[in-house]
């Protein structure tokens, strides 16, 4: 199982798809990396030679922000928005959608699946005596 950037990439998948298991690498970036490393994107990850894996590892670590560094940068950007008190920062603080979505409906994932419908909190009728 090839290990690139601290991630074990799946060996039974094509290398173009397997690279997307690394945080910060999507399909288009994986294609660009493979062209730069001169590797066919249809080859399976377990068929790569040690030299090809080293080329991939070198290109990824040298040219791109991935995994921990990218996550840290993202968290620092959110923290900066909260600190300066901008609108997006206040939405992050409140746990509401940040990018202009409506909130009357359709924000269950952001708000933690809160259901405030009429039937959800109804109490059972009193038992017969």
| Average pLDDT figure | 87
CATH class of the largest domain: Mainly Alpha
**What is the total number of structural domains?**
2
At the fold tier of CATH, the topology name of the largest domain is: Helicase, Ruva Protein, domain 3
Report the principal-axis shape: elongated
Question: End-to-end span in angstroms?
Answer: 68 Å
Structural class from helices and strands? mainly alpha
Question: How do the helices and strands follow one another from N- to C-terminus?
Answer: EEHHHHHH
Strand adjacency order, main sheet: 1-2
Total strands: the figure is: 2
Work out the strand percent.
under 5%
- Number of helical segments with 4 or more residues: 6
Which regions have little confidence, pLDDT < 50, spanning 5+ residues? none
Helix residue percentage: 40-55%
| CATH architecture grouping of the largest domain | Orthogonal Bundle
| Overall radius of gyration | 23 Å
What kind of sheet is the major sheet? Answer: 2 strands, antiparallel
Describe the structure in brief.
The chain is mostly helical. The chain has helices at residues 15-18, 27-37, 50-63, 67-84, 87-94, 108-111; strands spanning 3-4, 7-8.
